[in-house]
Amino acid sequence: MLSLGKEPPRPTDALEEAAEWLMRLSENELSASERAEWERWKVSSPERGRAWARAQLLQSKLGGLPPSLAMSALDRPSNPQRREALGKLALLLAVMPVGWGSWKLAQSQQWSADYRTRIGERRELTLADGSRLTLNTETAIDVQFDNQQRLVSLREGELLVQTAQDASRPFLVSTRQGHMQALGTRFTVRERGARTHLAVLEGAVNVMLADNSQSAPLIVNAGQRTDFSAQQFGTLTLADRNVSAWTQGMLMADNMRLADFVAELTRYRRGFVRYDPALANLRISGAFPIADTQRTLNMLVQTYPVRASGHLNGYWVSLSPA
Q: What is the top-level taxon of the source organism (predicted)?
């Protein structure tokens, strides 16, 4: 039973309570006393009222809980899967309504793709021609091989490509920004916002823009990197030697701003990590495991003048100066 308490709840606590009520409402009919408790809870503070308004908005858009969360709602309250589902639901409430569109898009991209990975997951594939792909966290791809070409379409995320030789069919990787033809090569591709980031480790890659047929293709050679939009190429520079460290389960930081470090770390972690603006330019260096982001946060706190506090069952972490 949720306690109303005398002190006004923090916004994160109110969201967690709203998530709990959504779960309880999805499980079965509330008794008269439970419904009365729910009604009192909704009007007990402005924070709880706002949290429940977000819950109602989510219900109106989904017609109920997301299926992946509703399944966990049927478990007993002490079940770890149910506690994880509560954290996810509270997080979804936290980003409503702004985060709804991106969440829905991500779900549709992930579940309709030929191959996909979840947050924090990596996956290795060997294609029919012997080419090898490594998919990074939250990545979705389609694969289409025919007599004319071998095509991998990156819908979202990041992958490492190691191509097999086939003189009769080019190997292409496409994103919304362009097409990359492998010239006997090993390379990484990451779609980030409205740009594609390409780093070539071996061989070369021929890049063609999606919406600028007048622009000549750009050849990116081993040891080089570039990024591009659908209309324009970025600068051609030396590739970061750690660009594929994620395939070994590591996040490599070399004098990296904490703001950029957090942005990279949250790719592998379910939930939010927020930081005090005073920490944005703190420089971070080291090798950090991406398979255990909590361990990485502990390493950060132990090494740098940073304090971490968790909310919503660990799904919301705040970093502040120590």
A: Bacteria
Q: Which domain holds residue 54?
A: 11-103
pLDDT at 76: 45
The confidence score (pLDDT) of residue 271 equals 74
Task: Check which CATH number belongs to the domain holding 312 and give it.
Answer: 3.55.50.30
Please report the beta strands in the chain, taking only residues with DSSP state E, as ranges in sequence order.
115-116, 123-126, 132-135, 140-145, 150-162, 171-175, 178-182, 186-192, 195-202, 204-209, 218-221, 224-228, 237-238, 250-257, 272-275, 283-289, 306-311, 316-321
Name the stretches of the chain with pLDDT < 50: 1, 6, 67, 70-76, 98, 100
Instruction: Check residue 189 and give its pLDDT.
Output: 98
pLDDT at 66: 55
For residue 79, the model assigns a pLDDT of 56
What is the number of domains present in the chain?
Answer: 3
User: Does residue 127 sit in the same domain as residue 226?
Assistant: yes
Instruction: Collapse the DSSP code of 257 into the 3-class scheme (helix H, G, I; strand E, B; otherwise coil) and give the result.
Output: strand
Flag whether 110 is in a domain. no
| Contacts with 184 (C-beta within 8 Å, 6 or more apart), sequence order | 163, 165, 203, 204
- Angstrom distance (rounded) from CA 80 to CA 244: 33
Other CB atoms closer than 10 Å to residue 232's CB: what's the count?
Answer: 12
In whole angstroms, give the CA distance from residue 168 to residue 165: 9
- The owner of tokens 């990074």 is 136
Amino acid at 276: D
CA 198 distance to own-chain centroid: 19
pTM here is 0.70
